Amino acid sequence: MQTLLNYINGNLTEPASGTYIDNVEPATGQVYGRIPDSDASDVERAVEAARNAFPTWSAMRTEDRSELMMKLSTLIEQRMEPFAQAESRDNGKPVWLARTVDIPRAVSNFRFYATAALHQSTAAHSMGSTAINYTLRQPIGIVGCISPWNLPLYLFSWKIAPALASGNCVIAKPSEITPATAFMLSELAIEAGFPPGVLNIIHGYGHKVGKAIVEHPEIKAVSFTGGTRTGEEIARTAAPMFKKLSLELGGKNPNIIFADCDFEKAVKTSVLSSFSNQGEICLCGSRMFIERPIYERFKEAFVEEVRKLKTGDPNEEHNRMGALVSETHMEKVLSYIELAKTEGGTVLCGGERIRPEGRCKDGFFVTPTVIEGLGQDCRTNQEEIFGPVVTLQPFDNEEEVVAYANSTRYGLAATVWTQHLTRAHRVAAALHSGIVWVNCWLLRDLRTPFGGMKDSGVGREGGFEALEFFTEEKNVCIKL
Ligand code: NAD
What we know:
By secondary structure, the chain is an alpha/beta fold. The protein folds into 2 domains: about 1-250 and about 455-480, Aldehyde Dehydrogenase, Chain A, domain 1 (3-Layer(aba) Sandwich); about 255-445, Aldehyde Dehydrogenase, Chain A, domain 2. It has helices at about 40-60, 60-80, 80-90, 95-115, 150-165, 180-190, 205-215, 230-240, 265-275, 295-310, 325-340, 380, 400-405, 420-430, 465-470, and strands at about 1-5, 5-10, 10-15, 20-25, 30-35, 125, 130-140, 140-145, 170-175, 200, 220-225, 245-250, 255, 285-290, 345-350, 355, 365, 370, 390-395, 410, 415, 435-440, 455, 455-460, 470-480. The strands form 7 sheets. The protein has a 7-stranded mixed beta sheet, sandwiched between helices. A 6-stranded mixed beta sheet has the order 10-9-8-11-12-24, with helices on both faces. Nicotinamide-adenine-dinucleotide binds near residues 150, 227, 248 and 452. Nicotinamide-adenine-dinucleotide binds near residues 176, 225 and 386.
């Protein structure tokens, strides 16, 4: 039985409470480890450590901070396989996916921000012979990073890396559902030689550790990725304390397929954009809109491809989908499939829990599910399911589909399939989404802004936006 520890002031330590939470392996349904059930007193100890570390860390040359981060990224890369195995076991995703996406991406997140910080510059505004203004960008101090379970190390590093690169000390909390790779990261931070207190990783529940981070008066900025409801709660606490907030929240993303699309590519990529990581990616398209002239043909081809997706043991390379992250989440997904039926939907494929033979018989597996026959306003098409469930809907013209696409409270990502260049630009501009992919999906350039509109969030991560979020801007005006 694996027991994880907090990482506070450079040491791996037990939680103040002395109590632990069970960690369940989603593919087997069995408890396989324990994680610290930390509370506000652990956060307090981490803040003390960060307070002591900040003067030296923030004054360190950017090159030296960058070197430490590069070292950390290399250490993760050298342990790619154990990290991939751990991520898969903790989350239920296939090992091949963790090996090709999650862990390599965490490595590049650290590398990207270790090097981006070296190229950051600030503005100067000359007032001729009267004065010169220049802008300083200074680290905020102690910042909080709170992340979800779907892409555990990938999203954790996406926050920690820019926060550290810009000279802040970090109190970070991974999801209590997927803590394993964050713990492994803390071991590597020690090996890389990070000064004590610069990075602190505290495990435990959101309503204890997460809440304590958000409420702590010395933590001046919080970068959060998770559900919209949690985001609302965080905003309620943090806003009157005038904290900087970056909130990356839920989505209900449209995938729009015009009749003039490259048919084969649209089918193939839509299978990925619907069901990658069991549909547990905030960027997955869950509402597919297909232009009426190709609706039937597309539906047939799509469902045929979806039926080929094998769901089962995440350790087996041929399985395209693994287990959902928890029993509670599986029940939620299944309840939405039942809801879709009561709302008048027809399940074209999938729609049920499966129990693979052998070690995974009690795992949380749901087959990829495609539903048609539902209207815009039903709950199935308005609420985030965050699992392997998509709906198909026909549309007749551009104006109509843009209205459909924009009809939810969310605005994270959208995908558009068309060969018509002008229409691609026009629709991209009209969609209420922070990210629009045209004829592709999940093609990511780390320099681009990442985030959502409406109830999908506030602020942008990625590129220099994240470095800006984790710094305070100061104008210095010098009279000549
Ligand atoms: P969640 O909101 O339940 O939890 C996210 C994190 O917040 C966890 O670490 C949790 O412990 C913590 N938390 C919970 N309550 C808290 C509180 N009161 N104060 C502070 N922290 C608290 O979300 P989840 O179920 O882990 O993740 C799924 C959600 O994340 C989905 O809605 C998905 O769309 C969203 N998500 C969004 C993005 C994005 O980039 N926009 C990316 C991935 C996931």
